[in-house]
Amino acid sequence: MNLQHLKYIVEAAKAGSISLAAENLFMNQPNLSKAIREVEAEVGTDIFRRTPRGIVPTEQGEAVIEYARRIIREVEEMKSFCREDRRNKISFSLRAPRSGYISQAFARFVVRLDKTKELDIQFRESSSLNTIKRVEEGGYNLGIVRCLKSQERYLQQLLGRRLKRELVWEFEGRVLISRTNPLASKDTVTAGELEAGTEILYGDLRAASLAREDRRPEEERIVISKRRVFVSERGSQIDLLHQDPSSYMWFSPMPDDLLRRYGLVQIRCKASSPVFRDVLIYREDRKLSEADRLFLEELYRVRDDLDRRMRDRTRTPG
């Protein structure tokens, strides 16, 4: 058994299908099946259970696959450590939900990096489930997942024991509107005032739930307007907020300078808004790097400034 064999079983577990894994690995199915059987024979247990829909790990197979992932990560870290350019490069990777305060913290973090060093920086906005998967597999070093407070127990089950977690922020969703919106001068709005407007979906709170929208309890759904427009691209969302004065989005709290830059206002809604949590995750076997700590320093600074502003005022000034 060698490192390539370990990569085979990790890819098979990820794909859930021998044929799909073989395709991803650019090899034929019989050879992959043979290699997996060889690993199973050497470790003395079945790693996968074959089903009509593909393959699923056995109970012992789950442990073997996790050992394989860990060995692959450690080998990659060893290679990285031994590279001559290691001291001259800053590496950082993060998957996080769409959020103004996280984006601002990331920008400030990049500005603070040593200008004399090469950069290998990855930042991707992603759903919570995809973030958990990619951090667990080792594709990203840090992740921030967003969930409803009521889903905290389910989140803990998803994270399991392989991922460390740390609460970043707990907050209530806010309504995001243009400064030209007739409601922009109000401190708070009611559900009735929003009902006649157009809701722009795919804001950063719509994708936060760990369950599908149609399977969430009624009290956890933010459903007010029957006029809804699905827009995923951020620039188009902002354009629509300005073009349609009645439009609005549910958003996490945004820093003042971003609101001023885009001509937007955030206000509270008297309707019952679910409480959300942003949680930092990273692998249990990983130590935070200097770059990781620098980013978290900026993240918590932005969070604290925004939290202080929210406590002082119920509405961001227009």
Short structural description:
The protein is about 40% helix and about 25% strand. With about 325 residues, the chain is an alpha/beta fold. Helix 1 (about 5-15) crosses helix 4.
Textual characterization of the structure:
The chain has 318 residues and is an alpha/beta fold. The strands form four sheets. The chain has a five-stranded mixed sheet with strand order 4-3-5-13-6, sandwiched between helices. The longest helix is centred in the first third of the chain and has 24 residues. The C terminus is likely disordered. Belongs to the LysR transcriptional regulatory family. InterPro entries: LysR_HTH_N, WH-like_DNA-bd_sf, WH_DNA-bd_sf. Pfam families: HTH_1. It comes from Thermobacillus composti (strain DSM 18247 / JCM 13945 / KWC4).
Give the tags.
D-Maltodextrin-Binding Protein, domain 2, alpha/beta, Arc Repressor Mutant, subunit A, disordered C terminus, 13 strands, four-stranded mixed β-sheet, single chain, five-stranded mixed β-sheet, 3 domains, 11 helices, 318 residues
